[in-house]
Amino acid sequence: MAPYLGFLRIPVVTAFWLLVAAFPVGRIGGAFFRCAFTDMLAVVGSWYLGLMIYLMILLAVFDIVLLADNWLRVLPRSLTGRNGRTALAAFWTVITLSVMIVAAGRWNALNPVIREFDITLKGTPREAPLRVVVATDIHVGLLVRNHWLSSMIETVNMARPDMVLLVGDIVDSDVTHAQEERLSEELAAINAPLGVYAVLGNHESYSGAEEAAASFRDGGVTVLRDEAVQVEGILTLVGRDDRASARIGSGRLPLSAIPGVESSLPVIVMDHTPKKGETLYYVSCGIGVWGPPIRTSSRPEVVVLNISFQ
Q1: Is residue 19 packed enough to be buried (19+ CB in 10 Å), middle (13-18) or exposed (0-12)?
Q2: Residues of the domain holding 252
Q3: Most buried of 119, 148, 154, 285, CB within 10 angstroms?
Q4: Residue 221 per-residue DSSP state
Q5: Is the Cβ–Cβ distance between 42 and 30 less than 8 Å?
Q6: 40, HSE (Cβ side, Cα atoms, 13 Å)
Q7: Contact by Cβ (8 Å): 73, 26
Q8: pLDDT (tens digit, 9 = 90+) per residue, 58-117?
Q9: 238: closest CA among 199, 277, 194?
């Protein structure tokens, strides 16, 4: 790539190596002596990682097409000539496409959708379906800042929930980062008459399970750690610790061993890493981001379950 940069070669190559170092230096340096500079390095480095992923993919596609052309001769000869203009055009095409993909991924990440599903369970009939709103993988912290978190909470409230379920990875890698973004205050702004409930994901285990759970409770959230509760005599809600909890020595109970699971009421289980079985389950792609602050493979989502009982 460097030969096509001309007089920009030295500054671009220098910037490239600085960006290569930004993310690891920001993360490792922040672990020992966190400051605004290490945070900035980690954020800039995350954008670089996102851009480089698509640069590498597009360059690989470009090389595969050229290799295939050696056998099949599918490209016009004007495009495969050994002249500098063709190579330069290909180079800047790859750069431009990568930037466009990252820009589109950023827009996508900032614009979640609300997906609704109608479910019928056995239970006491209600006049109107129960609206259960599910959000997962928010990853509040260094990349998901307060303005973004506030927008996510607005989306949850726009879904007009009776009850809200937060199914793990609410924080990213450090509870302190999340609290700096006023996590507890934002969670307290959720409007759900039947309550807000949460379970822990693998990232809560990494960042400190007890500290994370305390932050959620400060925001009025009921944290279920291998526990079951009855909600208004309508259903039994079960929250399981994530399987990652075993790495910090706490483990988790088998579902059958959680008190209150055996109930005549319909049972809803919250589990950050669910297993298949004889049940109806929904796996959400989440609403936040992890790593580069972009999303290109799925739309961020808030899920609404309209539950009727018969």
Answers
A1: middle
A2: 112-309
A3: 148
A4: P
A5: yes
A6: 4
A7: no
A8: 988 888 877 877 777 766 666 655 555 666 777 788 889 999 999 999 999 999 999 999
A9: 199
pTM reported for the whole predicted model:
0.86
- 172 and 66, same structural domain? no
Clarify whether residues 135 and 101 are in a common domain: no
Residue 20 has pLDDT above 90, yes or no: no
Residue 165's pLDDT band, with cuts at 50, 70 and 90, is very high
Three-state SS across 246-302? HHHCCCCCCHHHCCCCCCCCCEEEECCCCCCCCCCCCCCCCCCCCCCCCCCCCCCEE
What are the structure tokens assigned to 168, written together?
């793990």
Domain boundary among the residues 88, 108, 128 is at 108
What is d(CA 191, CA 161) in angstroms, rounded to the nearest whole number?
7
Mapping DSSP to helix (H, G, I), strand (E, B) and coil, where does residue 7 land? Answer: helix
Report the C-alpha gap between 182 and 197 in whole angstroms.
Answer: 18
Contact 225, 295 (CB under 8 A): no
Residue owning tokens 């698509």: 54
